[in-house]
Amino acid sequence: xxxxxxxxxxxxxxxxxxxxxxxxxxxxxxxxxxxxxxxxxxxxxxxxxxxxxxxxxxxxxxxxxxxxxxxxxxxxxxxxxxxxxxxxxxxxxxxxxxxxxxxxxxxxxxxxxxxxxxxxxxxxxxxxxxxxxxxxxxxxxxxxxxxxxxxxxxxxxxxxxxxxxxxxxxxxxxxxxxxxxxxxxxxxxxxxxxxxxxxxxxxxxxxxxxxxxxxxxxxxxxxxxxxxxxxxxxxxxxxxxxxxxxxxxxxxxxxxxxxxxxxxxxxxxxxxxxxxxxxxxxxxxxxxxxxxxxxxxxxxxxxxxxxxxxxxxxxxxxxxxxxxxxxxxxxxxxxxxxxxxxxxxxxxxxxxxxxxxx
Length: 358
Ligand SMILES: Nc1nc2c(ncn2[C@@H]2O[C@H](COP(=O)(O)OP(=O)(O)OP(=O)(O)O)[C@@H](O)[C@H]2O)c(=O)[nH]1
What we know:
Layout: H1 3-28, H2 35-43, H3 47-61, E1 66-72, E2 77-85, E3 95-96, H4 101-108, E4 112-114, H5 123-130, E5 135-143, E6 146-155, H6 163-194, H7 204-220, E7 224-232, H8 235-242, H9 244-261, E8 267-272, E9 275-283, H10 285-300, E10 304-306, E11 309-311, E12 315-322, H11 329-345, E13 351-356
Parallel strand pairs: 12-13
Antiparallel strand pairs: 1-2, 1-6, 2-3, 4-5, 5-6, 7-9, 7-12, 8-9, 10-11
Helix pairs in contact: 3-6, 8-9, 9-10
Guanosine-5'-triphosphate binds at residues 198, 231-236, 239, 244, 247-248, 251, 273-274, 344, 348.
């Protein structure tokens, strides 16, 4: 065969492929998306909203008595994230990956249709059957190389779904999987953009936003607002003596000590260099001081191994309490900063405290 013949052959076969694609595209177009569904999706403000909308509409689109979406939770369990209709499997019930039809679909990434439940060995099918359902169709939600969970529709009558329903549900599941993945990627990016890459605590950029949220919650609550500016002592000489990499290890260890010393609801941020800020809502002076003592004790016990010795570190802390509304972050940080400098000039390794009333 000449080169020209080969080229002609290829052209013919790719044009035949295009014709086939066009036919299947026309067939795909029989999947009708109700306009209200699309509007509701566009109004969704969170991933949960999207999944609730999809569950609600998939029961309508497929005339199902139950529609549900499960997401991979761990190596052994899926979790029900959205559900519409028959409550045969309650939302708070984990779905085991082994011993269920949904788990099998997730593992094998192959859609399954149980036309009738009689004698089914699968736990989920048995639960659906016990609540009056007759059949169910389950498809994997795959995006890229990952299966993120499955979509399921069930009907009271056995054998209620068609091959076409299976194709449609699968198409919807792929779209939902892509949507879930994008949401997760955005969440990950948000976390990254708010985190100090070295220590894992909140960075300075996100500090103002987190502070605003915390201050708002506090103004409705009891107690005062405590702010502590923590600045490590003679950190430059640690870098100069042991190298920047050792200095970094000190910063990581200090961030861990901060994390262990304060409540989960307190805000810990790295303000830059070797300076951290802690904000506590709903404290009084004894509570603030005992939290700082706890931290100072943790700091005094820190030993960062280097070559043939260990690095020890101390901190100068400027602490303040404010007990009225109208907290201006810059002014609070400034006042904590002044207290911290006082701690430096008064000999370091100490806490200087100011009580502010605005
Ligand atoms: N290893 C490391 N060092 C940093 C980082 N950011 C800032 N530094 C260093 O931190 C040191 C801060 O030095 P100074 O501001 O003089 O403070 P100090 O030596 O702790 O002195 P005092 O605060 O007065 O006790 C500088 O040498 C900076 O280069 C970092 O991410 N990693």
